[in-house]
């Protein structure tokens, strides 16, 4: 029986690359054989992810197996399997997994839809107001929705489509430009911005925290509160400008939408008053944000600090005890368990590439090439970030992109004299903002692009425009904000 999960050609290419690097290419000077062989497995894994040779979780299992069997991290078989499974002990991985499970409550209770329709009932007099309502809805649920695909594609997009349809705007009838074209672009471009604003807003963000800590010998450990505070000003500015910029470039035919508020209010009326489960969800979200932001520690001292992952487990426990989520809901949240598996594999490989000296070697190559230009660290950082950012045209996965390039570019920037925390925060923002570029940049993009409201030409044009705006704001406004905060 044919396995539809397997794509043969990308799989063959991935295996060929592993064999070529392992057996044909000699390790460069200064790189050990084990480090080079792990790189071969790593590159093959990334290529398989990009080519979607198998589901990413299945690829991760194969990667773990190969690391354990080949002994590239340790000659002792018993230690090699421990190394291969070491990623599962990383608390940040469980933070994302548990947060994804918690976010299931948004859909189950209907709270996500209620938030969206509430904002539309407030700001829906004009089309641009609906745009801001969609963006604000994204922003509100982002801290507790680590799947940017579930947030933008699964919660906000259906609301956006229902609004567009109510105004007679649909791709099938050739009326996308009435209002749906504009709202679809706002729906999508909210997603990269909100993903950049919180550690828990997209799954790869904790990987970035881990890579930064590893590269600096744990001298820099970015907390949930630090990330949120750093991204607050540039993120809000991007959210504020984005609907206006899209409106200026691709104005909708319908400018005023008085019926949208009525439509949203009718939807809210049909939903009725908030249920007990919704109230529990709101309370848990509030508790998570307070504890993740470190408020108790700020008020009562460091003795009252709570680990971020422990807070996520606390939130899930409350939802289970109250009945807002059942254990069956937990077991059914396939995305969470899938994330734990593939995330663990990638974190494990990235960790040992660093331990075996491969990242140091590659960052040295990047650093020496930029150093030859004879420019200061600021220009060097611009070069590094621009190359890192626009390389995403060649990636269909932010996770693969971050895993492949982040550590080396971060280490190279530090070697060129960049302040570590400034560089780390800038690259961290870029790692989400680069989702804006293409219709295959992240899981959210094919969902919204696939609805047919926006042509590929308009998608790529708007993506490039917003990439320049967002990256400039993060680098300039964000940089000044971080200077005021004393981060560099």
Automatic annotation (TrEMBL):
It is a multi-pass membrane protein. Its main location: membrane. Pfam families: Na_sulph_symp (PF00939). It is found in: Membrane. Keywords: Membrane, Transmembrane, Transmembrane helix. The chain crosses the membrane at residues 7-25, 31-49, 84-103, 115-135, 227-250, 280-304, 310-327, 339-364, 370-391, 403-428, 459-482. It comes from the Bacteria. InterPro entries: CitT-rel, SLC13A/DASS. Belongs to the SLC13A/DASS transporter (TC 2.A.47) family. DIT1 subfamily. This is C4-dicarboxylate ABC transporter.
